[in-house]
């Protein structure tokens, strides 16, 4: 598996957006947004392999003290007593809009695989809602199922 490098585009507390808060199963007034571009290390010139945006409830303010260009969410969650236990993902092929295509270095309208994820911890509490866009020209998806 190749080593991945991360560029943080946005990391802030913001007013709650109803649709996102519904996905976070929260009625709070604020949320945390983390947007990142991820690259295969030493292949920056080939462009990012994914644009990923994660949202967390305002209760997760401890996340703000970490640098996610150097740390993974999994490490930070575990340091703070939370372990990813359950994840539900939905995959949909979508054409990219202007902003996303510019960030990913592809043409507007090119296809990407949008993967939305809902992650829960060891106690079944929702940890994160995430939307990721993977340009199809730079990614391959292999599903292995044990029957």
What report would you give on this structure?
14% of the residues lie in helices and 44% in strands. The chain is mainly beta. A 6-stranded antiparallel β-sheet has the order 1-2-3-6-5-4. The longest helix has 7 residues, at 73-79. The chain is globular, with a radius of gyration of 16 Å.
List the keywords:
mainly beta; 14% helix
Could you spell the SSE succession in H and E letters?
EHEEHEHEE
Oligomer: single chain
Classify the secondary structure makeup into a structural class. mainly beta
Distance between the termini: 25 Å
Low-confidence stretches: none
Helix count, per DSSP? Answer: 3
Name the helicity range: 10-25%
Taking all Cα atoms into account, the compactness measure Rg is 16 Å
How large a portion of the residues is in β-strands, by DSSP E? 35-45%
Strand order of the largest sheet: 1-2-3-6-5-4
User: How many strands?
Assistant: 6
Largest sheet, in brief, is: 6 strands, antiparallel
C-alpha geometry: globular
Could you report the average pLDDT, rounded to the nearest whole number? 93
List the SSEs and their pairings.
Elements: E1 4-15, H1 18-23, E2 30-40, E3 50-57, H2 73-79, E4 84-95, H3 98-104, E5 111-121, E6 126-135
